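Propose amino acids for all 246 sites.
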């Protein structure tokens, strides 16, 4: 067969005809040299491709699972401010909405500007590894850092459960006040860890304390211009965080 093909091609050449062998003699062309060898190579190539593809898929899945297991959740809570007295309650309850991105040890909460109510939009980052919370006030473009309060902030899995619950029905809750005071400026955000550094880099950053834990027993100075509030939740109640610069 091979010999015949070779011969006929030679014969064509000898006759001076520039017709390709494949066209001239399809039977010869469809019987390629070494059929078994090329089928084997083809199979090997296919196997190789399948192997590489499965490797990519498994590898991708692993990377996804272990390095970026982030999830976005959206939730809203209506709340009652018990401290302001029952009479002053409006007909409809105020509402806090937020979006949260939860990974293994980090929760980043995005608080939009509240409607019909004073309060600043903010990003709130809870770093469960470093046990720190950072508030980035988006109106002031300033960062405030305080130790993570684990009796207020639910751990990541519980947060996920809470937001899964909030997705299905609206939630009625109550308001808790939190009074924080700026204590000192932080010049180097590096020791605060990768995530807070990424959030606060290039912004003025301050350390805070609970007012009640200040020496002097937390005498409240009521100067509204130096204070601002952020309404948010990371538990089954809404927290009004009031941050004062003095
Ligand atoms: C955490 O927050 C609660 C409620 O605001 C407060 O009573 C408690 O003292 C705080 N704990 C710490 C360690 O700051």
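Proposal:
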């Amino acid at each position: 067969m091979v010999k015949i093909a070779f011969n006929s091609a030679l014969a064509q050449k000898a006759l001076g005809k520039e017709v390709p062998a494949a066209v001239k003699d399809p039977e010869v062309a469809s019987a390629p040299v070494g059929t078994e060898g090329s089928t084997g190579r083809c199979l090997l190539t296919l196997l190789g491709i399948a192997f590489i593809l499965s490797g990519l898929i498994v590898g991708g899945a692993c990377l996804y699972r272990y390095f970026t297991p982030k999830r976005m959740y959206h939730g809203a809570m209506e709340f009652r401010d018990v401290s302001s007295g029952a009479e002053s309650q409006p007909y409809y309850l105020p509402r806090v909405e937020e979006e949260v991105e939860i990974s293994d040890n980090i929760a980043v909460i995005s608080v939009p500007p509240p409607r019909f109510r004073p309060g600043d939009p903010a990003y709130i980052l809870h770093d469960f590894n470093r046990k720190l919370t950072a508030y980035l006030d988006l109106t002031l473009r300033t960062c405030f850092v305080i130790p993570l309060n684990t009796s207020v902030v639910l751990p990541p899995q519980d947060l996920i459960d809470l937001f899964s619950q909030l997705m299905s029905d609206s939630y009625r809750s109550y308001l808790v006040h939190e009074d924080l005071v700026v204590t000192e400026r932080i010049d180097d955000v590096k020791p605060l860890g990768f995530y807070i550094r990424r959030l606060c880099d290039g912004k003025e950053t301050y350390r805070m304390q609970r007012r009640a834990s200040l020496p002097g027993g937390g005498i409240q100075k009521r100067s509204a211009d130096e204070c601002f509030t952020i309404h948010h939740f990371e538990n089954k109640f809404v927290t009004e965080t009031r941050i004062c610069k003095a």
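Confidence is low (pLDDT under 50) at residues 1-24, 26-31. Residues 74-84+93-244 form one domain.
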